[in-house]
Structures are given as C-alpha cells and as structure tokens.
Design brief:
Length: 253
C-alpha cells in the first residue's frame, strides 16, 4: 500500500525535489563533496516520502525547498558521537550520551518547516543537544540562539558548530524553560524536549505573529507535537500535529 500512495503524490513534489537537488549539484550545499554526501541525499529522499505519507497531519505534501537543502547540507555525522557515526544518516533518533538523543531527521525537517521562518528570522532553540537542529536552522534563518542545560553537551555542540563554520549560532548553557530574555523577542521558538505544559516564559518571548513548535506530554504517555501561534494582538492558539516521542525537558521548574 505504501508505493501507490507515494506515486500518487510524486508528480506534485517532483519539481520541488528537482529544485533542491539542482542546488546540491550546483555546489550551493555547504559541505558537499565529503564521503557522506550520497547518504545525505538518500536521507532527504526518505524524508520526502515520509512527509507525503503524513501529509494529512502536516497539512502539507512537500517541505520548503530551503529546509530540504539544509537537510542535504548539514554534516550530521560530525554532530553525533563517533560510536554511532555509521548510522548518522539513518532516519531514526540516535543516542548522544547523558541520557539524550538526536532527533530523527524526519522530525527535525518537519519541525523546521512548520516554524514558517524567513531569511530574517531570529529563532530560539530550547535543547541544543548535539547542535544538529541549530545547524539546520542556521542555513535558512538570520540568527539561531540555542540553550542546553547539560553543560558537556552544550560545550561540545558549541565547539563542533564553530569548527563547521556556523557564525550565526549562539550557544548558551542554561535552563531553556525560562527562555533567553536578553535576546527576546523571537520570531520562532523550537523546543526539542517534551514538556508537561507550554512554558509561559517562552510564550511571553515569542513575537506577535510568531510560532513555536513543542512536544507536549510526559515520558510515559503519548506526546503530541504542538504548534503554538501568537497572533498580532497577542492571542495564543495551539494545534496538535502528530504523536511523537522525545526525552523530557529537565530543569529547576
């Protein structure tokens, strides 16, 4: 049943697929030419197929070509521990130590896409982890501010991102539940750990007209990926997208 569903919608996404692939071939991919380039392209094709299969939940059949190009560009193998590097481009989460994981590439892609950012956006990420989500965002927005509560992870991510040349990512060690008031407000916020509720400080730091993506739920219950939108008058509305599984948000709260 999978293949007829994919083929039915392939014609609608073929132009988009060609667009990002052309960018890759043309040399616009920042880290092209390494030994993992073909694995990244295969990973993006798998993400595209998963998006088509979940199109009703996502309310879209294809992703923004900027997101696909970023996914095809970021060297995920550099941002995971060496012990799992061989699986870096498999479409599944991977352990990065300290009880944390790097999210499945499909999840990273749809969360990035659902933020609806522009090239001028300033984005806050709560939960730096390995730095992969921040790197993907950095390819499509003006500035990424990312917070990690586990110091060794945050410091490692900062070093790796600096070595890769990302100059529009700022990493801070701290409790992301409370956001980053000194840099607020943000055009978009993405939370990469599950919270039992939507943190009020993050809602406050989201610009009117902004959007937040956050998994809501506990470790032992079904979590839902939630879109939080603040309209121009400051009214907040939420919408559940699909069930997910994230490690819990930690901190003094």
């Amino acid at each position: 049943m999978r293949y007829p569903t994919i083929m039915k919608y392939w014609s609608k996404s073929a132009a988009l697929h060609i667009l990002w692939l052309t960018c890759v071939i043309a040399g616009s991919v920042a880290h092209a030419g390494d030994d993992y380039e073909q694995e990244r392209l295969a990973m993006v094709e798998e993400i595209e197929a998963d998006v088509r299969l979940t199109r009703l939940s996502l309310d879209r059949e294809v992703l923004d070509p900027r997101v696909l190009q970023a996914m095809a560009s970021v060297p995920r193998h550099v941002l995971v521990p060496e012990r799992v590097r061989a699986a870096a481009y498999e479409n599944r989460p991977l352990s990065i130590g300290h009880g944390q994981t790097i999210s499945q590439p499909y999840i990273v892609a749809i969360m990035t896409d659902l933020l609806d950012t522009t090239a001028d956006s300033r984005v806050l990420e709560v939960g730096t982890g390995s730095g992969y989500q921040a790197a993907v965002l950095a390819g499509i927005v003006a500035q990424v501010y990312t917070m990690e509560i586990i110091e060794p992870l945050g410091l490692q991510a900062r070093d790796n991102l600096e070595q890769l040349g990302y100059d529009n990512i700022t990493v801070q060690i701290g409790d992301g539940y409370y956001g980053w008031e000194q840099q607020a407000p943000f055009d978009a916020i993405v939370v990469t750990a599950a919270a039992s509720h939507i943190p009020p400080p993050l809602i406050k730091q989201l610009k009117p007209g902004g959007r937040m993506l956050i998994p809501v739920g506990s470790r032992f219950m079904v979590q839902q990926l939630v879109v939080v939108e603040k309209d121009r008058e400051g009214k907040v509305v939420t919408r559940q997208i699909l069930p997910v599984r994230f490690v819990p948000l930690t901190g003094s709260h």
